[in-house]
Specification:
By secondary structure, the chain is of the alpha/beta class. Helix content is about 25%, strand content about 25%. The protein has a five-stranded mixed β-barrel with strand order 2-4-5-8-6.
Length: about 210
């Protein structure tokens, strides 16, 4: 539902030092401020169109002095043209995304990250960093050249029915039913054998 709502100011969605509410994931937002290229980080090992590269995450300094991470896009290598944004005021729109929860213990080289994490970004940028990040959709003014835009990491609309997962679920249900049948039959046969042993008796004939 958040993805279908009207765009909101990032200041209304993500509070510095807080956590991003689950119901706000996918919320369209807009933000006004200026990029701080000195704090820019590169997220390693990110591919686009089957090509290896990096994600470019740049802090956007908002009017109130706080920061929001902006995933500006993908580059084939850190030194590719457009990696560093000009120090000018911009208006950006995008989609709010949650922190990536994997490889939290990884310690890459300075200026790089393995996953986008507000906790790690606060260590670099300071406590005024807002939670989550913004996947860039539009920017005014535009910078050419610049990173290639990437789609939001969390799909919020037009999600196809997971037919493959449905078949997996049916497969496991069939397996569970078969296992239950085999186990029940094993118990029944075991009970039959015990019953037969209990019914055995011996007749002894003594000569007269």
């Amino acid at each position: 539902q958040a993805s279908k709502s009207a765009p909101r100011a990032i200041e209304e969605v993500a509070v510095p030092g807080g956590n991003l509410a689950n119901e706000l994931i996918g919320q369209p937002v807009f933000a006004k401020g200026s990029y701080e290229a000195a704090g820019q980080v590169l997220v390693l090992n990110r591919s686009f169109a089957d090509q290896p590269g990096v994600w470019v995450v740049t802090p956007l300094r908002l009017v109130d002095g706080s920061l929001i991470a902006v995933l500006r896009g993908w580059l084939p290598e850190p030194t590719a043209p457009g990696a560093v944004p000009p120090a000018v005021a911009v208006v950006v729109t995008g989609v709010v995304q949650p922190d990536e929860g994997f490889y939290a213990e990884a310690k890459p080289d300075p200026g790089t990250l393995v996953a986008i994490s507000s906790v790690e970004l606060r260590k670099i940028w300071g406590p005024e960093t807002r939670p989550g990040y913004l996947t860039l959709a539009t920017q005014q003014p535009t910078f050419t050249p610049g990173p290639t835009p990437v789609p939001p990491t969390v799909v919020t609309g037009n999600v196809a029915f997971p037919i493959q997962n449905l078949f997996y679920a049916i497969q496991w249900l069939i397996f569970a039913a078969f296992a239950s049948f085999v186990y029940g039959r094993w118990l029944w046969r075991d009970a039959q054998e015990i019953s037969a042993k209990d019914g055995d008796f011996t007749i002894t004939v003594t000569p007269s």
